[in-house]
Amino acid sequence: MVYIKTKKEIDFIRDSCRIVAETLRLVANNICPGVETIELDRIAEEYIFSNNAKAAFKGYSQAGSYDYPASICVSIDDEVVHGIPGDRVLKEGEIVSIDIGVLKNGYFGDAALSVAVGKISSDKQKLLDVTEKSLYEGIKEARLGNRVHDISFAVQNYVEANGFAIVKDLCGHGIGKFLHEEPAVPNYGVRGTGPKLKKGMTIAIEPMVNTGTYKVKTAKDGWTVLTQDGLPSAHFEHTILVSNGSPEILTVC
Ligand code: MF3
Ligand code: CO
Question: Are 201 and 5 in contact (CB under 8 A)?
Fold first, then answer.
């Protein structure tokens, strides 16, 4: 069941998404060599609480693992997504993906971005640029008359044309009353297929892009997703609203 949101619901989702975007910006501004990743978690949690909202990922349950223990995900280099903040210290030359979800008034918002820690290699910079651009290529397709896999195809096509690999084991999702709703929004697929996009749908589009193989594995901690070859990965995500004309990006501030 794909939910079409009412105006009132969209306003709640919009508010949660604004808090997500503001928190992401705050965390990104605090990324530099020497910072412990748990410190980023604290900064995010405090800001989310100060907005009378909750961190959506904390306590989230996933089949086969214990509940997610932190407020945000911090994934470094070969960590694709779902890295758990802890005592690891950020080092110059790393890339770090921050993923944040917020729940307020019963509605969710979700977004992610990847940033450089100090100066990074040109290969890593290209990975960041291609991943971010692939998200916008996908968003462009999120309009009336299109289908979900038009988004998927656009993301995959852009990523592969630029020599990178798209992760296939994880995908984007509808979002609203639940963090994960239908439809699933894969980052690869065949144009013109999948559910029809309708006005009032809110979806999170989130390409995860690898430098080498598209294949991933789960770390011993039960959460962190890693590239199988140990090469770096990046992740960008926005929650968007399908509307008349161009989609509206909700996770902006
Ligand atoms: N943006 C990710 C997702 O949509 C974040 C989930 S983290 C988790 O799946 F801890 F909640 F799983
Ligand atoms: Co998401």
Answer: yes
Q: Is the CB of 57 under 6 A from ligand 1?
A: yes
CA–CA separation, 18 and 62 (whole Å)? 26
Tell me yes or no: is domain 7-249 CATH 3.90.230.10. Answer: yes
Residue 50 burial (10 A CB sphere; 0-12, 13-18, 19+): exposed
pTM of the full structure: 0.98
Strand order in the sheet with 172-174: 181-185, 172-174, 202-205, 238-241, 248-249
Instruction: Name the residues around ion ligand 2, CB cutoff 5 A.
Output: 110, 204, 206
**Alpha-carbon Rg of the chain, whole angstroms?**
17
Contact 209, 232 (CB under 8 A): no
243-253 residue pLDDT tens: 999 999 999 99
Neighbours of 45 (CB within 10 A): 18
Write down the residue that tokens 């979700």 correspond to.
110
SS (H, E, C) 160-229: HHCCCEECCCCCEEECCCCCCEEEEECCCCCCCCCCECCCCCEEEECCEEECCCCCEEECCCCCCEEECC
- Decide if pLDDT at 169 tops 80: yes
Mutate to test the pocket of ligand 1, among 58, 71, 82, 205 (most ligand atoms within 8 A of CB): 82
Closest CA to 250 of 207, 187, 205: 205
Tell me the C-alpha distance between 236 and 238, whole Å: 7
Alpha-carbon distance of 48 to 23, in angstroms, equals 7
